[in-house]
Structures are given as structure tokens and as C-alpha cells.
Amino acid sequence: MGERWYTESVIYCLDVETFQDSNGDGIGDFQGLISRLDYLTRLGINCLWLHPIHPTPGRDDGYDATDFYNVDPRLGTLGDFAELLHEAANRGIKVIIDLVVNHTSDEHPWFQSAVASKDSPYRDWFVWADKEPADRFQGMVFPGEQAETWTYHRRARAWYYHRFYDFQPDLNFANPLVRAEIKKILAFWIQLGVAGFRMDAVPFIIELTEPGRSEAPMDFDYLTELRQHIQWRRGDAVLLAEANVEPEKLPEYFGDAGGSANRIHMLFDFMLNGRLVLALARQNPEPVIDWLKTTPKLPPGGQWATFLRNHDEIDLSRLTAEQREDVFEQFGPDEDMRLYDRGIRRRLGPMLGGDRSRLELAYSLQFTLRGTPVLRYGEEIGMGEDLTQAGRYAIRTPMQWSYATNGGFSDAEPIRPVISKGEWGFEQINVTAQRHDPASLLAWFERMIRTLRESPEVGNGTCACVDQPLPPGVLVHRADGPTGSMLFLHNLGTQDATVDLGALAKDTHLPNDVFADQEYEPVGDFTQLQLGGYGYRWIRLRRSNS
Ligand code: GLC
Ligand code: CA
């Protein structure tokens, strides 16, 4: 894997502080993560995305940094971090980190200086208004937890802008000094050896906010600048952006109209996420097919990152009210499982009622759709959520490693309780229990990921739905690339199905099943392909298309 490695990767995301504690203080750390790299190697992932690692008061789980040039001392030292990069590289694992520069923590020295005096050199690093802005109550990201986007600061004697919580003042990207500083931050981490960044809140970084003007102009050129900057420092470094915007606006994040991808390499496919969840809820693939057909065309080199769960709520805001209701009814029936009127704060296992075959189906589908799959820690063993935790913390509980105290995460009182007792407790669900069991979900993920890595056309080829009459609930898609062609059948419904894909047979060469939910009759002439309820089949049509 060399060129465009990100198109052939499986990304695993985790928060260092909830993964593995090494020194008995109840907080996960770099040394703990290092000790688990062999586990991740066996799982087969080859890129780690770490949630924010910087010093932080921790009011938004690290998405509020007080120093972009350091690591949170609770996680270890910069030395430990460098060690992690080295150990990961030894195992062929690249590390990307969260870059949260839309805002700082209000305890960041820049903001502290800015509020102390109008003459502070950092005053203009943030976004101010002397008078109460007319759009003060517009554009909140966390309804229910956030009352406004402009807050009056008594010491500063002015209003400051914050797209997110009031303790996260937005940096002023109209200020060239801020832009230069952000470049320095990127360069610093690249110099240490990170392979790229998951860029937080990109649409808000490039909007040039002015008080009272809710539709701010967008500066896409800054993304081009950042891309150039990192690419000169490290040729294979990547930007993976969070930009949950309307579909027609997505291409601009990748690059200039008509050109190649000269901005962000990879964007999370939030649309697909919502559609996938809807399709699962309705046991009908239509929403996914529809999105695959209407996805805007990406410039060459642009790539999607697919996901079923990330660290936030499942955001259903791009579904219609009716679609959202269907998802809520199936997967978030209790008010307490929902968040911000638009999302679900649960993990996939419990959402799917702990139904193993349905869980496999869901992940098989995500991992075979175009793009680079992102997997959230704990999903590979089917962890659950803890609804007694506030908001999004429900799905941020410590990793469940073993039967030992606190699930083997830590000997001490953990920073957040490990899920214990009952169906989802660590006594039932943990890595040790699944490691040696060939029938476990973990073993399934290992096989699935290994098979995927033998099928690079999924990540670097084209993806198309097979447009033919199909039994209800069934989705058939194919991936074609220089290395060959793969065909995928997924049955989102519970009824066994027989699929006739005879028309495809002539274009195959030694076709065979490479992965499936059960043993099926060989593919034969493709006219009688069996598919169980919640079943899936990965069929190699041919190797090499030359
Ligand atoms: C992004 C993150 C989220 C965080 C927010 C503010 O949306 O995914 O976790 O709270 O940005 O930084
Ligand atoms: Ca620790």
C-alpha cells in the first residue's frame, strides 16, 4: 500500500482516555494504547484516528483545547506519543489526530489574553461584536445544551462568537495570524510523524463570521492552502474532514469545480450514515440506493469515509421528519435514547436489539460500500451504551477487555464507569471472551476486515448498484477497479431470497464466494443465488480487469 493509502485503509477511532489505562489512575493513556496495538494489528485495521489528545479542561471531551502543541498530561508525555507513533508504524498502522481549530477552550491562554484587554495581541484572534448581534440566537449546534452563539463577556466588555458551547470561542479565520498559526500546528504534528488529521467542524472554520450576518461568506481557498501546506511537509499526509452540509455543497470541500481534489482528501459521508440507518430501520435498501445514485461526483483523488457509529449522536437531521420518526421508532423508542431532537445516542449493538446476524449485515454493508470504512472502538465486540451518562457520553464508556475488575480497562476507579452487569456488561461482552472463540463477533470482524483488504477495489474502485429486479429488501452492488471486480448481495429483510443475476455471469472469470453469513451453494450461472434473511454474500467476479 503506497500511493493513496487512505483509499485502501480501515480506520479505527478511539479516545485514548477510555481505551486502556497503564498506570492505575483510571485514565487511559498512550502506554496503555501501545500495549493494545497488537490487538489492533490482529483486528486488521491500518489507520488509527485519535480523538483530541491536547491539554483540556475536558468540558467537551477534549474538543476544547488549551494548548495545540502539547498532549494532555493525563495521557502521557509527548515522548509517549512519539513512542506510540513509532510502535504503530512498526505494525503498519498510521495515526491521524483530531484537529480542533475552529475554536479553543475559553481557558486557552490566547482567549485569556484576548479578554483581558482590547490591546492584547490576541484580541483579534477571536470574533467580537461591540453590540448585541441580531443573530445571537441563531446557528446553535447543540440545541438544549447551548442557548446562543454570541455571548457577552464581562471582562472583555464585548460579545464573542461561539458556534458550539460558550466555553468554545471561535478563532477568527479572517485574521492572517490565526491562519498562519494553524499551519504551524499542522506542521508540528506532521513533523512528529502523524499521517494526517481529522479536521473538526470544517464548514465553521472557513466561514468568515460577521456579527448579525448569519450567512457568512465561505473561504474555500484556505482549504487549498492547508492542503498544499501539509502535502509539502509530508507527501502522503491526509485531511479527513467533518463537514455535515447539504449534498450539493460537498464537492467544493474536495476541490475547485472541474479540477482534481486539491482540498480535503476525505469527507465523512454523513448522508450515507443517515440513509444506512433508515434502510436498516425500514428493512428496505431504497434510501441507500437512492443516495448512491445521487451522490455528487467527486473529483479524482477525493474519497468518502463511511461510518455507522462515531463518537457523536447518529445525526438524522438530513432525513425527512417521517423518515426520522421511523428510525426513532425502531432504534430510539425512548426519549432518553435521543439527543438534540435529531439524533440517537446509542451504539449499534443495542440499536439492533443485540441481533448478531443483523449486526453483521449492517457492518458488511458499510464496509463494502464505496469509500474508506471507519470503525469505532468497541463496536467490533458489540459493546452497548450507558444511558445514565449525560448526552453523548453514553457511547464513550471504557473499552471492555476482559473479566477482570473494570473490564480490564483499569485497576482504579475509571474516569467513566465501565458498563457492567446484564446483557451489555463487561462480564458478558469483552475481548478475552471473544478472542479465542471463532464464532465471536470479534473473530467475524477480523475475517471480514482481512477479506476486505484483499478486495482493494472497494476502496479505490467505482461502486454501482446493480439495477435489476430484485426481491424486496435486497441490495446488490459491485465494486470495479484495476485489481478486479467484486459483487455484494445484502438482504436487509428477514425473508430468505433467491436472486437472479444471470445477466452478470458472462463477464466473470472463475467467480467464487469469498465471504458470506453462511455456507451457500456455489454461484453457478448466477441465476439462483440464495440469500438468507439478513444474509450477505461477497462474490469475487474476477481478478484484474486487464
Ligand atoms: C464536532 C465533534 C464534536 C464536538 C464538536 C465541537 O462536531 O465531532 O464531538 O463536540 O465538533 O468541537
Ligand atoms: Ca493512566
TrEMBL record:
It comes from the Bacteria. Gene3D superfamilies: Glycosidases (3.20.20.80), Oligo-1,6-glucosidase, Domain 2 (3.90.400.10). Its EC number is 3.2.1.1. It is an enzyme of class 3 (hydrolase). The keyword Translocase does not apply. GO terms for biological process: carbohydrate metabolic process. Residues 13-416 form the Glycosyl hydrolase family 13 catalytic domain. InterPro entries: Alpha_amylase, GH, GH13_cat_dom, O16G_dom_2, SupH-like_C. GO terms for molecular function: alpha-amylase activity; cation binding. SMART domains: Aamy (SM00642). It catalyses: Endohydrolysis of (1->4)-alpha-D-glucosidic linkages in polysaccharides containing three or more (1->4)-alpha-linked D-glucose units. Keywords: Carbohydrate metabolism, Glycosidase, Hydrolase. CDD domains: AmyAc_TreS (cd11334). Pfam families: Alpha-amylase (PF00128), SupH-like_C (PF22157). Belongs to the glycosyl hydrolase 13 family. This is Alpha-amylase. The lineage of its organism: Bacteria, Bacillati, Actinomycetota, Actinomycetes, Micromonosporales.
